[in-house]
Amino acid sequence: MTVNLSRKSHFLVLRPVSVALCGSASQPDLLEESSASSTAPHRELFRTRRPAIPDLTSHLKEITLPGSSSSIRGSLWFSFSARPVGRVISIKLCPSPGAFQNSEEDLPPDINGWTTSRVRHWALTLNGVDESTADRLFEQKVCGSSWLLLEKSNLILLGDKLGPAKLIIRSRDEFKLNSKKATFSTIKPYPFGRYHCGYRYIEGSILYVPESGGLDLIEPCHEFKGFYNTSSDNELEKFISEVIRFAAACMNSRTNGTIHFGILDKPQGQVSGVVVVDKEKYINAIKLAINKNFDDNCKHAVQKCIKTPRFVEVLNRDSTSSDKFVIEVDIEPQFIICENNYYHTSITKKLKKKDRGNFFYIRDGPSTRDLSTSMEEYDKFIKQIPQLSQGRKNAEEKHSKPIKSTNQGSRLINMITGRDLSLDKSHFEHYVIVTNKSHPSHFENLGFLIELDPTAVLDFDPESAEHGLLSYFDQQSTVNLHLPAKYKIMESVKKTAAKLELTKNTSWVFCNGGIEEEKPSDINQWPVDKGASVQDVISFLCRKDVLPKNRFLVIFLLLSPVREVIDPLVETFSKFRQELKGTDQILCICDNENTFISWKDLIKLKCGVDISGRCIYELSFAEVNGTILSLWSKNRRAKRFLPSWGRSKVPLEKKFEQSLNTLEVLCVNECEGGNEDRFAIEKNFHRGGNVSWWNFYFSELPGSIPFIKRDKFDCIVKDFIPELRSLPKACVLLNLFHQPGCGGTTLAKHVLWSLKDQYRCAVLRTKSDFTEVADHVIKLLTYPCDEQTARVPVLLMIDDFEDMEKVEELQQVIENKCPQSAKVILLNCMRVESSEVIKLTQNTIFIGNNLADKELKLVEMKLKELEEEHQNKTSYFGFVVELMKKNFKAVFSSFLEQFAAECEAARMTISTSESKTFLVLSQKRVEVVHQAEEEVLPHVEEFKDVPVEVEKACRFLLEHQMSDGGWGEDFESCEQRRYVQSSAAQIHNTCWALLGLMAVRHPDQQAVERGVQLLVDKQLLNGDWPQENISGVFNKSCAISYTSYRNVFPVWTLGRFSRLYPSSPLAGKLKL
Q1: Among 427, 425, 403, which Cα is nearest to 587's?
Q2: Longest Cα pair distance anywhere in the chain, in angstroms?
Q3: Using one digit for the tens of pLDDT, what is the confidence trace for 913-953?
Q4: φ and ψ of 119, to 5 deg
Q5: pLDDT digits (tens, 9 = 90+) for 371-426
Q6: Residue 152 to residues 131, 137, 163, 167, 168: CA-CA distances in angstroms?
């Protein structure tokens, strides 16, 4: 390291690091310790009498870091070189080889964990202990735990002399003491006058506060009582004696004060704690003592000044609970209570009744003093009472807290939603919570955590499952418990994420033990024991293929203060910042300024960044909770209900609903009270998007035209389903076969919506594990009571199964699990090419492309409504409505003519029936692509005419063209929300890219010809093209082959190419 020393007169002053050196024989007194205060910000710790430092090799004895009470001692050799640089001398310290070999710096503070080798090496560091003595310890296999039990007589029996034996025992005891001191941290006292802030003390920590208190009468003075040599018989009497004396002194001196029981005087301020069995005993004792030890005319005032005892929990060093507390009593002698009065008491420090009398106590510096023994001092103090009272009044007025104006509420809203101002439409799709030790008082204000439904919680409280945050969260939500080791990627990322079930339930990661018999680590040992595995968790969550980039927010919820730079939360913040390349996806929340300042300073020290702009600390947790909950719509906050027997309803608990992760449950009051964007939702649906429950809800609002019912809707609702319900079989099946794009899925959902008051309706989300699906269906059926005899049937919609055998298999699994007298109706929505390929039975319905007259009239009404609401109806809504209005056929007829022209240009003959088959199977995508080309870019004659957005899209296509000339996108793009290139070019992807480039007349004809050549090469001898990868995906879960795409799009693409580039050698090259 390099240490810069500034020159003052003839002295060199070491500022950042203090270094004590034992000079060599040639330089015996080069450095000496200065008498400067060790608490000065830039302290003059060591200085030399010489104006310059020559090159030398010196024996380093001690290094003391600023702001720390710990020292590093041992035999360390360093090379010193010094040279003047202007007014500064730069000294470089270079450790020599083997410098740290036998250093106590390398020895862990926990002696129990020392090996026999470590004990031997430690002995060798002691002056006066030779190698033979150290070897004897090693030969006798003295390890750390046995070394702690050694006595001087044991060493003498081993053959050691008295001198080395005494030296070893004394040095061991000193090391034990120094090890403990080195790990003690300084902490602030519990906030004055507060009781429910969740603050705790850590055993062995030092209370960083002067006993004398402040000079302003408002900053409390403090008195520490160890309370450890008190017998149980005298415990309560001593507690009362100390409290009354201290309280009387504070009231007479007009200063706030806190007396602490369980805080040592030596070392001063060290937390030890007191075992408390009965808290009420102490509370009641104070009330009785006030009545007994004060005059009647002042008892009421004293009761107001002496606050109720506070019991602050003392944690072990590893953050686990102990049975100890620090008992604290606050004294607040407000001017309005005390005025110019003064207070005598009959209690004395000595616990003898004969010593009782009339005592007058005051605060004198850090102690309490009785003035009743000196009438001169007493009279003088009494005369000063009015002046003290006025000083108290002035101090209260000066410290009266004005109402703060803050914008942290709006900042919280912006940061947690990504500036979208609503959690229903938040920019962030996932939330990751990082938190530490909670307090029961927090739980009533943490409801927002349940609503955020976090993807993962990194919990550093090892007792969270017993009485911490998890115990609260688990009552209302479903979680998966994990240790960090489970996040280590041993196989593919996808398989690891699947095993963790990240998308199903909240993953609760115990980052400091607490489950599966893993013990917690203290703050010093945590980086060694658990630091690396927690870093694996963070790296995994920040992968783009796990959580989408820029679409998740990490919330540091500081439920306890963070006091040290080596705290695991500081390390965790640093790792998240590194992975996320900044703090834009990090939000820190705490409920007080002290916690914020400590956290901000530690992050500045660790990471070198100021995180004030990413912190919320001026709001209480109650205000944070209310603000976040208000960001949900009324519908999201409200209770959801399921239908029950006799037209009654039962509330659907959130935790239960989350446990049914294979089902999307449709409730009786679905969408009620919501504030969703009606325009955006309807626009998406009318442009060909999937229908949502909101579309049905909006259609039922006053003034709206009812949702268009397909011709088969009434017979399904009124005939088919009631008949199936009457059958004796437990699980029955209704097949709804439909041609692609004709609205079969929309019809099925419409049926569920209309029957949600009579059936427990749900949509199947996943088809992977039929046993799990069946379990969830039965849970939905029997909720809330398994023993209920009369049950409302379940109506379960299943969509896009390609194999009827799988449908029947699912039906059978559910049938086998159904309880007696239960009923489950499966509404199987399945695509087919035409009615000719299915066998129509009593439980089968077919929906084709033709609209009935009644349906056409409803379409006309809907089109009229859209014309009134939207001027540019064609741009926003026209395609689907026009398609339905013209009963599909007119649109197909027009498109069929162009399709035939393309085929003719490709010199390929194709029958009308084959064309219709192609069109029916791919109508939706073909129509959308065709209409986009004809309506958006009909004017394009040259590439220079295209908009900037189109030019950018073309660049994207050309950048992703593969080496063989084609394009290929894997279906996982839908799930990962990014472009995932397939291993080989795909026919349909290549066609889509070429159609786009040709639609805008892109000038790079060579790139187009390379793609066309691929299509020509891939055509089979019989004129067909091979079936390749999955062509379509929706909802990130359903993959569709679209078998017609492999023929429709190549014919279309090659025909367009031949028409646009007739002179190209590739024009018309098809296998006819």
Answers
A1: 427
A2: 125
A3: 333 333 333 333 334 444 444 443 444 456 666 777 888 88
A4: -65, -45
A5: 988 999 999 999 999 999 999 999 998 887 665 667 888 899 999 999 888 888 78
A6: 18, 13, 10, 9, 8
